[in-house]
């Protein structure tokens, strides 16, 4: 059993001082406050529930900074995608594992305790299957095991190259699967997942409406009555137009009207929605998977935050392309994107109140829901997904408890993170991951080999 003593902690019922948490088997088994530390306690300043990063394509971290040169004509998400395909087609299994481990170290150091890996690279370059159909999923598992991050694995169904069941392009063949092949992959990955700690989860990820078909989606959802379901939806205006031309309805409208969308679902991006779609999505219980840094980097647009928040919608945050892994920046940019669009301030909080606290705690709950993880608050029985920050840092020392999360979101950086626990695994200490140097050395070697290939 491990014990954490915090000078202050944001518990499920609110702030408390002098808090001692007993952890056992990855969970919080008791909470006392108004007491002092004991000799063997791990002592921290301020303890918060740690967020889950609900949407990651780990391999894309290694191409960060490689696509920021303007090409002739107008760059877009679609031109970026072609560059991503070319990069991805050179990666070996060993490189994918090394990149993922580096990404997970960076996530933990940023304050995330868990990740939803939206995993769509399944095959060898050119689309030839590996002898072990779950080879690349197992590489993700190895990276999670090495770094101690909590993993919700989301293998991807990707059958078509575009809306209307267009044939896969050459760049998409590494992740092409039909439903039957996907089920074999899912079963193999599920078996291999048992070697990870008990908090690991698996779900399904039909990539998008444009990469599947109505019949395939219906079959897939019917076969999987439990576990998370994640899908990219309404990320780009062109995607919205193509789906409407093909299916006779806008993407979110079609999804909500044709599939049993509920609190198991996470709709990634959902950027381009009408007000009606926004409110209907909120009413469904699904989580909006928002990735503000990537959405800004790719020119996706801004999410309809005010209407969604007013309707009580759930949301979480993800680092998606991993161009910059920063928990505080994701939350900050989520709010700032609303301010820039609307010419207003303090937008993303229904009624009145602290914007930082609303953003942080909503993302904690939404991320836990999307990852099927019993976390998102500090309470007995919950997974010990915890982050400690230094409230005496320059960015935070002038703030009261009631303003601390505003300072964390809008004034601080991830450098204020001192410690992170994932299901009780104490992986970040003194601001650094316990295997940081070894993981980076393997990553650097992998990148050098990749660039030399």
TrEMBL record:
<dbReference type="Pfam" id="PF22429">
    <property type="entry name" value="HutF_N"/>
</dbReference>
<feature type="domain" description="Amidohydrolase-related">
    <location>
        <begin position="46"/>
        <end position="425"/>
    </location>
</feature>
<dbReference type="GO" id="GO:0019239">
    <property type="term" value="F:deaminase activity"/>
</dbReference>
<dbReference type="InterPro" id="IPR006680">
    <property type="entry name" value="Amidohydro-rel"/>
</dbReference>
<keyword id="KW-0862">Zinc</keyword>
<keyword id="KW-0378">Hydrolase</keyword>
<dbReference type="GO" id="GO:0046872">
    <property type="term" value="F:metal ion binding"/>
</dbReference>
<dbReference type="Pfam" id="PF01979">
    <property type="entry name" value="Amidohydro_1"/>
</dbReference>
<keyword id="KW-0479">Metal-binding</keyword>
<dbReference type="InterPro" id="IPR010252">
    <property type="entry name" value="HutF"/>
</dbReference>
<dbReference type="InterPro" id="IPR055156">
    <property type="entry name" value="HutF-like_N"/>
</dbReference>
<feature type="domain" description="Formimidoylglutamate deiminase N-terminal">
    <location>
        <begin position="1"/>
        <end position="43"/>
    </location>
</feature>
<dbReference type="InterPro" id="IPR011059">
    <property type="entry name" value="Metal-dep_hydrolase_composite"/>
</dbReference>
<dbReference type="GO" id="GO:0005829">
    <property type="term" value="C:cytosol"/>
</dbReference>
<protein>
    <submittedName>
        <fullName>Formimidoylglutamate deiminase</fullName>
    </submittedName>
</protein>
<dbReference type="InterPro" id="IPR032466">
    <property type="entry name" value="Metal_Hydrolase"/>
</dbReference>
<dbReference type="InterPro" id="IPR051607">
    <property type="entry name" value="Metallo-dep_hydrolases"/>
</dbReference>
């Amino acid at each position: 059993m491990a014990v954490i003593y915090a000078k202050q902690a944001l518990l499920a019922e609110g702030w408390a001082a002098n808090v001692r948490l007993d952890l056992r088997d990855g969970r919080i088994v008791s909470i006392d406050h108004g007491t002092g530390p004991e000799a063997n306690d791990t002592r921290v300043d301020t303890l918060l529930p740690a967020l889950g990063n609900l949407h990651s394509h780990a391999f894309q971290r290694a191409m960060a900074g490689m696509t920021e040169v303007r090409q002739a004509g107008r760059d877009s998400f679609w031109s970026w995608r072609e560059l991503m395909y070319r990069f991805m087609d050179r990666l070996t299994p060993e490189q994918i594992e090394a990149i993922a481990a580096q990404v997970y170290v960076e996530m933990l150091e940023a304050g995330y305790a868990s990740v939803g890996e939206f995993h769509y690279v399944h095959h060898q370059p050119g689309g030839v299957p590996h002898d072990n159909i779950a080879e690349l999923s197992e590489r993700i598992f190895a990276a999670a095991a090495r770094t101690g991050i909590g993993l919700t694995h989301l293998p991807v169904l990707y059958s078509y190259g575009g809306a209307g069941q267009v044939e896969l392009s050459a760049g998409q063949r590494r992740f092409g699967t039909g439903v039957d092949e996907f089920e074999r992959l899912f079963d193999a990955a599920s078996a291999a997942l048992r070697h990870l700690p008990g908090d690991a989860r698996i779900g399904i990820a039909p990539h998008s409406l444009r990469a599947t078909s109505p019949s395939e989606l219906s079959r897939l959802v019917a076969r999987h009555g439990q576990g998370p379901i994640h899908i990219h939806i309404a990320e780009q205006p062109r995607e919205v137009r193509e789906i409407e031309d093909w299916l006779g309805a806008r993407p979110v409208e079609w999804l909500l009207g044709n599939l049993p969308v509920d609190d198991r679902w996470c709709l990634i991006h959902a950027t381009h929605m009408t007000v009606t779609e926004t409110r209907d999505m909120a009413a469904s219980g699904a989580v909006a998977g928002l990735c503000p840094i990537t959405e800004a980097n790719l020119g996706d647009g801004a999410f309809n935050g005010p209407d969604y928040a007013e309707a009580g919608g759930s949301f979480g945050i993800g680092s998606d392309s991993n161009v910059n892994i920063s928990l505080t920046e994701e939350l900050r940019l989520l709010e700032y994107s609303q301010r820039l669009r609307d010419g207003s301030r303090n937008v993303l909080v229904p009624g009145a109140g602290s914007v930082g606290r609303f953003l942080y705690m909503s993302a904690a709950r939404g991320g836990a829901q999307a990852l099927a993880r019993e976390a998102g608050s500090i309470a007995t029985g919950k997974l010990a997904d915890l982050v400690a920050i230094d409230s005496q840092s320059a960015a935070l020392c002038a703030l009261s408890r009631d303003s601390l999360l505003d300072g964390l979101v809008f004034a601080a950086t991830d450098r204020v993170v001192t410690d992170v626990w994932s299901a009780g695994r104490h992986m970040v200490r003194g601001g650094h991951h316990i295997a940081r140097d070894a993981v980076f050395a393997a990553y650097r070697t992998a990148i050098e080999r990749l660039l030399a290939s």
